[in-house]
Automatic annotation (TrEMBL):
<dbReference type="InterPro" id="IPR055170">
    <property type="entry name" value="GFO_IDH_MocA-like_dom"/>
</dbReference>
<dbReference type="Pfam" id="PF22725">
    <property type="entry name" value="GFO_IDH_MocA_C3"/>
</dbReference>
<dbReference type="InterPro" id="IPR036291">
    <property type="entry name" value="NAD(P)-bd_dom_sf"/>
</dbReference>
<dbReference type="Pfam" id="PF01408">
    <property type="entry name" value="GFO_IDH_MocA"/>
</dbReference>
<feature type="domain" description="Gfo/Idh/MocA-like oxidoreductase N-terminal">
    <location>
        <begin position="5"/>
        <end position="123"/>
    </location>
</feature>
<dbReference type="InterPro" id="IPR000683">
    <property type="entry name" value="Gfo/Idh/MocA-like_OxRdtase_N"/>
</dbReference>
<feature type="domain" description="GFO/IDH/MocA-like oxidoreductase">
    <location>
        <begin position="133"/>
        <end position="249"/>
    </location>
</feature>
<comment type="similarity">
    <text>Belongs to the Gfo/Idh/MocA family.</text>
</comment>
<keyword id="KW-0560">Oxidoreductase</keyword>
<dbReference type="InterPro" id="IPR050984">
    <property type="entry name" value="Gfo/Idh/MocA_domain"/>
</dbReference>
<protein>
    <submittedName>
        <fullName>Gfo/Idh/MocA family oxidoreductase</fullName>
    </submittedName>
</protein>
Length: 331
């Protein structure tokens, strides 16, 4: 039986070099076999990370019979095209978030993957850190009572004068696509519900026409409310809190604990006092091992794919709300 998955990477993007390629090399069931770039320097990256093969086009990599799975860190607007191409070439796909520009694109991508018998997963690496499993355990224990609200924020400071794909509307730039998707994903995952409606307000840059900041409110069944904030122009924050009738849980490094050596901190506040729980994990490695294992064991990833679709539908509603400047239903 095959023991490991051979990976290829489409594009030598920063996130690939800083996080995902090193994670593949750390994983116990994965090998990095090839990298390709149509604009960058694949040979230089191949030498830097000791990658056996370097291709000057994505097509060359996708037709390599030795490659089992590909990681796609391309700009958001290119995800659909290259996910479809990878699927048609029989490659399993780990695609950077957000999976697509809208839910229609995501549905079409997943349909092709299903038709071609390949696995697809959206690269929300944060979910593989054990702190989130612990949050659900505490909620289910009843310690913080009935959950009434969740607040999530992911913000950072981007150089708004530099050339950056995050400031390119045609490539799917903006804070909602870049970091707001994490906030929404975490809310749906922790609450295990879908919102009925959303209302968003934002700061749209006049020159680039991308959203620099978005603040949103979601209404859920049972009078549960969630808020989120995403920004490319605010002091760095990546946390969420879950508030119940008896207490609350705060995750201080919700999405990028890897920037703190993989350490996540969970704070529980109730009438009985405050306590902290610390967790250390390699979330990028865990993501690679999870997906590689799903391929090796032919596991069903339908639940993950359904979460991708739900997340995109909420994001669709957020963009409609920003445009219409009113609360809209999640379709």
């Amino acid at each position: 039986m095959k023991q490991s998955i051979n990976w290829g990477v489409l594009g030598d993007a920063g996130i690939a070099k800083k996080a995902v390629i090193p994670a593949i090399k750390r994983a116990n069931n994965a090998n990095i076999l090839a990298i390709s770039s149509q604009k960058g320097a694949p040979k230089q990256t191949a030498v830097e990370f000791n990658i056996p093969k370097a291709y000057s086009s994505y097509e060359e990599l996708l037709t390599d019979p030795e490659i089992d799975a590909v990681y796609i860190p391309l700009p958001n607007a290119l995800h659909k095209k290259w996910v479809v191409e990878a699927a048609l070439n029989g490659k399993h796909i780990l695609c950077e978030k957000p999976a697509a520009l809208n839910s229609k694109e995501a549905e079409e991508m997943l349909a092709v993957c299903d038709q071609q018998g390949v696995k697809f997963m959206e690269a929300f690496m944060y979910q593989f850190h054990p702190q989130h499993t612990r949050v659900k355990e505490i909620i289910n224990s009843g310690e913080i009572g009935t959950v009434k609200q969740m607040n999530s924020a992911f913000t950072y400071l981007l150089d708004l004068t530099a050339k950056n794909i995050r400031l390119n509307a045609q490539l799917g730039g903006g804070s909602l696509y870049d970091v707001g998707c994490y906030c929404i994903h975490s809310i749906l995952s922790i609450l295990e519900m879908e919102p009925l409606s959303v209302y968003c307000r934002g700061n749209i840059d006049e020159e680039s026409q991308v959203d620099l900041t978005v603040q949103g409110t979601m209404t859920f069944p049972d009078q549960v409310i969630a808020t989120f904030s995403s920004s490319l122009e605010q002091y760095p924050v990546n946390q969420y809190e879950v508030i119940g009738t008896k207490g609350k849980i705060i995750i201080t490094q919700a999405f990028r604990p890897d920037k703190q050596g993989g350490e996540g901190k969970l704070i529980v506040v109730t009438q009985d006092g405050t306590r902290e729980e610390n967790f250390v994990a390699d979330q990028y490695r865990a993501q690679i091992e999870h997906f590689s294992n799903a391929i090796l064991k032919e596991e069903n990833l339908n639940e993950s794919n359904q979460h991708t679709l739900k997340n995109m539908r909420v994001m669709d509603a957020c963009f409609r709300s920003l445009c219409e400047k009113k609360s809209v239903e999640v379709l």
